[in-house]
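tool_call: predict_structure(chain=1)
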Amino acid sequence: MTEKVKEKVKDKLDNTSLELLKLIIEDPGYNYSYLSKRLGISIKTISIRFKKLQQAGIVERVGSDRKGYWKVKEKVKDNL
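tool_result:
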């Protein structure tokens, strides 16, 4: 069962999204600017990816836009 879930999560996401999730797991407080520099993509692209991840139920926003953080859902986190 776990392998199937892992495959589904990885099939849905490209490498950049997977790296983004791994960084957020590492430190949920990373801001868009840092993530943009670390991944070599624009801040706008980071924003768009987070919106898609949120719509897919993979991440959720905790707190405000300014002082909050992104949280990766446990079922996804366990399968990365």
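agent: The longest strand covers residues 59-62. Proceeding to next step.
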